[in-house]
Design goal:
Elements (H helix, E strand, L loop, with lengths): L4 H17 L45 H20 L5 E8 L5 E8 L5 E4 L12
Antiparallel strand pairs: 1-2, 2-3
């Protein structure tokens, strides 16, 4: 298969969505409200030491949307996408946040590719997590 910008964009978009919305296991020091640390089972046996998939954004699911929560979301997003830069797929990662009402935070990314081109990825509303009580 020939490598085209469309293939790269599709692959990077898929990688960003998986990285942001797969639940990474909580760190030992993370506060969890129900005792569950969750996370993808495959992280128990990484091919590369300490290599983990996903983000800890799920830890914020019940947090009040404050400036601190937004900063934490940016940190978790950056942590989950760092591998893209470490593995040379992108030169830079910009995390975009926008408060959209009292209970909603929009999260997006702008990736700078090795060619210098910038790729904006804004997850569609279909990717929102809806919590039912």
């Amino acid at each position: 298969m020939e490598l085209t910008i469309d293939n790269v964009e599709t692959s990077l978009t898929r990688a960003v969505l998986i990285s942001l919305f797969t639940w990474r296991r909580a760190n030992p020091g993370d506060l969890v409200d129900d005792g569950e640390r969750y996370g993808w089972w495959g992280d128990s046996f990484p091919a590369v030491a300490d290599d983990r998939i996903g983000s800890r954004l799920w830890l914020l699911r019940r947090a009040k949307l404050t400036a601190d929560t937004i900063a934490q979301a940016e940190l978790y997003a950056r942590e989950s996408l760092a591998w893209l830069q470490q593995d040379g797929h992108v030169l830079d990662i910009e995390i975009l946040t926008q408060r959209a009402g009292p209970n909603r935070l929009n999260l997006g990314t702008v990736l700078t590719l090795p060619s210098g081109q910038r790729l904006a990825i804004e997850p569609h509303e279909d990717w929102q997590v809806i919590y039912a009580l």
